[in-house]
Automatic annotation (TrEMBL):
Belongs to the AccA family. Component of the acetyl coenzyme A carboxylase (ACC) complex. First, biotin carboxylase catalyzes the carboxylation of biotin on its carrier protein (BCCP) and then the CO(2) group is transferred by the carboxyltransferase to acetyl-CoA to form malonyl-CoA. This is Acetyl-coenzyme A carboxylase carboxyl transferase subunit alpha. It comes from Metabacillus litoralis. It catalyses: N(6)-carboxybiotinyl-L-lysyl-[protein] + acetyl-CoA = N(6)-biotinyl-L-lysyl-[protein] + malonyl-CoA. Pathway: Lipid metabolism; malonyl-CoA biosynthesis; malonyl-CoA from acetyl-CoA: step 1/1. It comes from the Bacteria. The keyword Lipid metabolism applies. Gene3D superfamilies: 2-enoyl-CoA Hydratase, Chain A, domain 1. Its main location: cytoplasm. One of its GO terms (cellular component) is acetyl-CoA carboxylase complex.
Length: 325
């Protein structure tokens, strides 16, 4: 099966058996309903065992699933009247970032997000979701426009990292990311960031300075990929699984560290299993977050953002000093 994850194989095989038995009963006079019921009960138990004990490396695999919903998938299900804007007004457009104006429950908002492809052709067009400098400058242009017209900003984070190629460096990749960090910190409108897949390095941070940072349950957020960390630490990229467990890059770990505010639950097996339902979960937390932030003035929003990032890491550092585990 395309996109099948290793830890899901027992579930997939059992589902296949149930499906075969159901097809067999349709074309014959044999009643296998009791056997099917037993297998379905066994399937439910197996799913609960597997999906409630997902390891960090398994979450990495889910975050990278080729069918995992992208920014455009969520825009389609959560927002209305989306109008995409292109170009940075300096160099060109970048398809690795989509941005535009939309309505969320009747409220005008600016939506910005990384965009990867779901097949080879689209991935080439989207540069596998790794933006060039013009992508970040386009995002900043839309953010400043939102600030001018008092529109909340919603960012979807899903990238392995900013594109590290020669052309990107020549056009000021690091400066573009740094400027986004600086400018986002001072925006006087609500900024909500949601990690929907992989949140990798500065490429993710360039859209990640928000009043609230939420993460899907099976997303990751880190300064480097597990493979990259393993290659640096142990000179062996094959130890990526060990690195994933050590780095604390999953939503539960980051929630405990205070890096993210809320964990958005995923449908059983991952967001790709039911995109409309997953979009509903995101819509719910967006509504709650916007209601809270909309009550604040521009100065209060900037202070709220400042205090949020100042607090990151304080709890774990204090506990370390006190010897609390």
């Amino acid at each position: 099966m395309v996109g099948e994850l290793e830890f899901e194989k027992p579930v997939t095989e059992l589902r296949k058996k149930i499906s075969e038995l159901k097809e067999f009963t349709i074309g014959s006079d044999v009643d296998l309903s009791s056997e099917i019921e037993k297998l379905e009960a066994r399937l439910e138990k197996l799913e609960n065992e597997i999906y409630t004990n997902i390891k960090p490396w398994d979450r990495v695999q889910i975050a990278r699933h080729p069918s995992r919903p992208t920014t455009l998938d969520y825009i389609e299900h959560i927002f209305t009247n989306f109008f995409e804007c292109h170009g940075d007004r300096y160099y060109g457009d970048d398809d690795a970032i989509v941005s535009g104006i939309a309505k969320f429950k009747g409220l005008p908002v600016t939506v910005i997000g990384h965009q990867r492809g779901k097949d080879t052709k689209e991935n080439i067009r989207r540069n596998f979701g790794m933006p060039h400098p013009e992508g970040y400058r386009k995002a900043l242009r839309l953010m400043k426009q939102a600030d001018k017209f008092n529109r909340p900003i919603i960012c979807f984070i899903d990238t392995k990292g900013a594109y590290p190629g020669k052309a990107a460096e020549e056009r000021g990749q690091s400066e573009a990311i740094a400027k986004n960090l600086f400018e986002m910190a001072g925006l006087s409108v609500p900024v909500i960031c949601i990690v929907i897949g992989e949140g990798g390095s500065g490429g993710a941070l360039a859209l990640g300075v928000g009043n609230y940072i939420h993460m899907l349950e099976n997303s990751t957020y880190s300064v480097i990929s597990p493979e990259g960390a393993a290659a640096l630490l142990w000179k062996d990229a094959g130890l990526a699984k060990k690195a994933a467990e050590t780095m604390k890059i999953t939503a539960p770990d980051l929630k405990e560290l205070g890096v993210v505010d809320e964990i958005i639950p995923e449908v059983k097996g991952g967001a790709h299993k039911d995109i409309p339902q997953q979009a509903g979960y995101i819509e719910e937390i967006l509504a709650t977050s916007l209601k809270t932030l909309s009550a604040m003035t521009g100065e209060e929003l900037i202070h709220h953002r400042y205090e949020k990032f100042k607090r990151i890491g304080q709890v774990s550092f204090t506990n370390e000093l006190l010897g609390v585990k």
